[in-house]
């Protein structure tokens, strides 16, 4: 959750940082009463975009009689296409020097970084020379004394300023720890004419996962910074971003939704939005999603693309049926379902016999159907879909490696919760040997015949445990990982999503050099076909064979596995590394494990925009002359830069990032799959070439 300057300063002030006094001016307050602080004043546009100073969004006001005119002018001035919802008025300050200071969670450094710059101002990252000093600090403790001193001396402040600087940085670190900040930036940090240090401007980003656990932090969010549709989606628990096309897109899982967006855009059927249902689809959420899509005047048709895993397609269909109330949809709806509950879900929708609902077998059928609905396309004879086509695509029936097989003994942490119970049953049905469960204060019970213990330590004393699967809620998930590691469990698979990022940094630091391998968090899990299932992966798409699947997305994993299996290409192992910015097992570590894995003849990597996991993979393949062919598909290639699409890991951080990612992969000799459709034939070709070598 990104805060504007005004709310960033309110948060700073609450933690004792020195900020100038200020007040918010709303659009109806263009004739404000005299503020409590004297002129001259600085009037600032409040937007969630940079460059407002260059755009004229900051004005100095010398007299009260000039304030109303300046406020009206700023309210009328758009910054990057958006007018400000409110302004901030604060005293003008005489500044002797300007610096830069920040604490930020860095994906590249996999830690908390203290940055100090001798000069502040705009475009700080692009300044050349040795202006910026970066130091990786302890995420739990904050900057060590020597790091505080290094930053102080780098700035070149005088000895008289040491106590104030030390106190300011301690307060900044306190804010980061207390409120789960991903970014706490002071730019500029001003040395005033009277010798004081002052946070003249600020930018704060709060971890959305922490906001979910701390509702009080939502008070720092201004809904009027966002589109009404995005606010409605947020309230309903949906991930929603407006785009520029005409096809309303509804998917489940960021990876599959992004791949669907790419497919639409590259087919000349541009997406009007990105909408991720997530793992739940009750009637209220479905009605909100449909209202967002049907209510958008740009949307001419809706594409619902689901691959059931933890989400049941049948439940989505029931929710859609309830949301429609027996009436024809106001806009055509193309529905493609596969995976968990797909056959039942499509049968429910087919039984509605409502015009405007078009059921298709696969994505190719969806593209054909949407192409006929494209605005300006001459009407053709209506396409007829047989009952078989209206139902799910071919159901692929449900193999050892990585030290996990049908004999491995599994523990479930959080076994008595709803998800724990459900997926314990599904893992048992698959043949996984779940031998114990843990829920504090519920020891002595049984779940599906599995004994429940109060602690992992108790379970590990009574049983040999090879792997633990964690369904503990986000607030306690990091501690649950550490509990399993303390008991010496070799594999820990953390399904939980919404784990605060700084909590994961602490976990990864504690696990470093130990004997526990973590998968996740926010992962569908790990599966060796016909051998063992750890997590929430549906059984149907996976068949035994020679290709290992590594993925950042659950639903994209299921989609790719189904396409490979339909082409008679089975899988040796499937591992979801997790969609969060900080995860345990990386692509590189997973690839290293598979290098000597005999059943694996090739590796398919399913990547996404954002982060550097794929570039690191390419470096590893080149440096090690990796002995097996590697293929890669990147979802989100047509995403607008800088927009967060679904889970936290999926953000394109700079222009050209996707091009750089693809270039790195190609230079390493990795086969690029340009589309989902290309995955199976390219994999078959690579396997044939490898067999002939």
How would you describe the overall organization of this protein?
- The chain has 693 residues and is an alpha/beta fold.
- It has 5 domains: 21-91, ATP-grasp fold, A domain (Dna Ligase, domain 1); 97-220, D-amino Acid Aminotransferase, Chain A, domain 1 (2-Layer Sandwich); 232-390, 3-Layer(aba) Sandwich (Rossmann fold); 399-523, NAD(P)-binding Rossmann-like Domain (Rossmann fold), CATH 3.40.50.720; 541-693, Rossmann fold, CATH 3.40.50.
- It is 33% helix and 23% strand.
- The strands form 6 sheets. A 7-stranded mixed beta sheet has the order 19-20-18-17-21-22-23, sandwiched between helices.
- A hairpin with a 3-residue loop joins β24 and β25.
- The chain is globular.
- It starts with a helix and ends with a helix.
- The relative contact order is 0.08.
Characteristics of this structure?
D-amino Acid Aminotransferase, Chain A, domain 1; alpha/beta; Rossmann fold; 7-stranded mixed beta sheet; Dna Ligase, domain 1; 693 residues
In short:
The chain is 33% helix and 23% strand. It is of the alpha/beta class. It has 5 domains: 21-91, 2-Layer Sandwich (Dna Ligase, domain 1); 97-220, ATP-grasp fold, B domain (D-amino Acid Aminotransferase, Chain A, domain 1, 2-Layer Sandwich), CATH 3.30.470.20; 232-390, Succinyl-CoA synthetase domains (Rossmann fold, 3-Layer(aba) Sandwich), CATH 3.40.50; 399-523, NAD(P)-binding Rossmann-like Domain (Rossmann fold, 3-Layer(aba) Sandwich), CATH 3.40.50.720; 541-693, Succinyl-CoA synthetase domains (Rossmann fold, 3-Layer(aba) Sandwich).
């Amino acid at each position: 959750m990104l805060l504007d300057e005004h709310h960033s300063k309110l948060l700073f002030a609450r933690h004792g940082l020195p900020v100038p006094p200020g007040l918010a001016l709303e659009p109806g307050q263009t004739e404000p009463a005299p503020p409590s602080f004297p002129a001259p004043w600085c009037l600032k546009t409040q937007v969630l975009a940079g460059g407002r100073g260059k755009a004229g969004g900051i004005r100095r006001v010398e007299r009260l009689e000039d304030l109303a005119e300046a406020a009206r002018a700023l309210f009328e001035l758009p910054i990057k296409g958006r007018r400000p919802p409110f302004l901030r008025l604060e005293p003008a300050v005489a500044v002797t020097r300007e610096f830069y200071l920040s604490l930020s969670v860095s994906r590249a450094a996999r830690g908390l970084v203290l940055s100090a710059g001798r000069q502040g101002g705009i475009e700080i990252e692009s300044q050349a020379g040795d202006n910026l000093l970066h130091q990786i600090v302890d995420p739990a403790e904050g900057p060590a004394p020597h790091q505080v001193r290094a930053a102080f001396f780098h700035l070149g402040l005088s000895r008289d300023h040491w106590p104030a600087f030390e106190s300011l940085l301690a307060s900044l670190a306190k804010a980061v720890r207390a409120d789960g900040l991903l970014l706490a930036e002071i730019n500029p940090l001003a040395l005033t004419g009277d010798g004081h240090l002052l946070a003249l401007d600020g930018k704060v980003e709060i971890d959305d996962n922490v906001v979910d656990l701390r509702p009080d932090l939502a008070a720092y969010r201004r809904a009027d910074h966002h589109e009404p549709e995005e606010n409605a989606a947020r309230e309903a628990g949906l991930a929603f971003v407006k785009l520029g096309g005409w096809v309303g897109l509804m998917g489940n899982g960021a990876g599959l939704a992004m791949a669907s967006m790419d497919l639409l855009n590259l087919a000349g059927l541009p997406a009007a939005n990105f909408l991720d249902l997530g793992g739940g689809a009750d009637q209220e959420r479905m009605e909100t999603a449909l209202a967002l899509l049907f209510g958008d005047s740009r949307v001419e048709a809706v594409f619902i693309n689901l691959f059931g895993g933890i989400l049941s397609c049948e439940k989505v269909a029931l929710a859609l049926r309830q949301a429609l109330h027996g009436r024809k949809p106001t806009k055509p709806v193309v529905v493609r379902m596969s995976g968990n509950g797909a056959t039942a879900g499509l049968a429910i929708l087919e039984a509605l016999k409502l015009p405007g609902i078009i059921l298709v077998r696969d994505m190719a059928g969806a593209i054909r159907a949407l192409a006929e609905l494209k605005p300006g396309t001459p009407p053709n004879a209506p396409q007829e879909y047989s009952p078989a086509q209206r139902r799910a695509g071919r159901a692929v029936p449900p193999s050892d490696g990585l030290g996990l097989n049908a004999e491995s003994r599994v523990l479930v942490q959080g076994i008595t919760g709803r998800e724990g119970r459900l997926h314990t049953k599904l893992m048992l049905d698959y043949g996984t040997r779940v031998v114990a469960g843990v829920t504090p204060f519920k020891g002595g019970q049984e779940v599906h015949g599995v004994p429940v213990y109060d602690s992992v330590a108790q379970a590990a004393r009574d049983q040999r445990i090879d792997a633990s699967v964690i369904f503990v809620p986000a607030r306690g998930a990091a501690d649950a990982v550490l509990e399993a590691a303390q008991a010496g469990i070799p594999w820990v698979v953390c399904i939980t999503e919404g784990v605060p990022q700084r909590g994961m940094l602490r976990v990864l630091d504690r696990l470093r050099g130990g004997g526990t391998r973590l998968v996740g968090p926010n992962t569908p899990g790990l599966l060796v076909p016909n051998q063992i299932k750890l997590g929430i992966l549906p059984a149907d798409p996976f068949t035994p064979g020679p290709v290992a699947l590594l993925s950042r997305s659950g639903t994209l994993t299921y989609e790719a596995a189904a396409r490979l299996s339909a082409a008679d290409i089975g899988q040796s192992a499937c591992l979801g590394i997790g969609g969060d910015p900080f995860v345990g097992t990386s692509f590189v570590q997973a690839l290293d494990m598979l290098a000597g894995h005999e059943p694996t003849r090739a590796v398919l990597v399913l990547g996404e925009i954002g982060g550097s996991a794929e570039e690191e993979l390419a470096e590893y393949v080149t440096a090690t002359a990796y002995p097996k062919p590697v293929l890669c598909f990147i979802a989100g290639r047509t995403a607008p830069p800088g927009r967060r699409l679904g889970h936290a890991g999926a953000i394109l951080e700079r222009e050209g990032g996707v091009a750089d990612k693809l270039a790195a992969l190609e230079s390493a000799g990795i086969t690029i799959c340009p589309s989902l459709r290309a995955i199976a034939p390219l994999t078959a070709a690579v396997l044939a070439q490898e067999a002939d070598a």
